[in-house]
Specification:
Elements lengths: L13 H12 L23 H9 L7 H18 L3 H20 L14 H13 L1
Helix pairs in contact: 3-4, 3-5, 4-5
Length: 133
């Protein structure tokens, strides 16, 4: 059985006392985030919010390598269509084609890749027709 609280003791715990004393000394005054809204306060709750924040801060992803390559291929295709010159568009497609060919030789873990290297002539033709309109 637990002992009763002595009559002269307060309900304040040791930690609460340390916090109160620090507040009295002014150690919580002028903190860097004081008065600023909490980030993502209006976002719906996610159980693993801190992992998603860390991934975003470190510019990392939790996608399997095969899906990441698919995403990179789509981004490269759009970048090639918007490239300022044909040489730059060709360089973008060449770079992603090297990665796609390597992934076809050694399939990455995750879902099936379902990618083939881009046909540079078709990409450049599409780029020319998009610029003409």
């Amino acid at each position: 059985m637990t002992a009763r609280k002595p009559a002269d003791a307060t309900w304040e715990t040791r930690v609460e006392r340390q916090i109160r004393e620090a507040m009295e000394r002014g150690e919580f005054d002028n903190l860097s985030g004081a008065g600023k809204p909490l980030p993502d306060a209006n976002q719906p709750y996610q159980e693993l919010w801190w992992i998603n924040r860390k991934l975003a801060d470190e510019k990392l992803t939790n996608l399997p390598p095969s899906l990441l390559l698919r995403k990179d291929a789509a981004t490269a295709y759009e970048a090639a269509l918007a490239a300022p010159t044909e040489d730059r568009a060709r360089a973008i497609i060449d770079a992603i084609n090297i990665r796609i060919a390597a992934a076809i030789r050694n399939p990455p873990p995750g879902p099936a890749l379902n990618l083939v290297p881009f046909n540079i002539r078709k990409v450049l033709k599409t780029r020319r027709t998009n610029q003409a309109t």
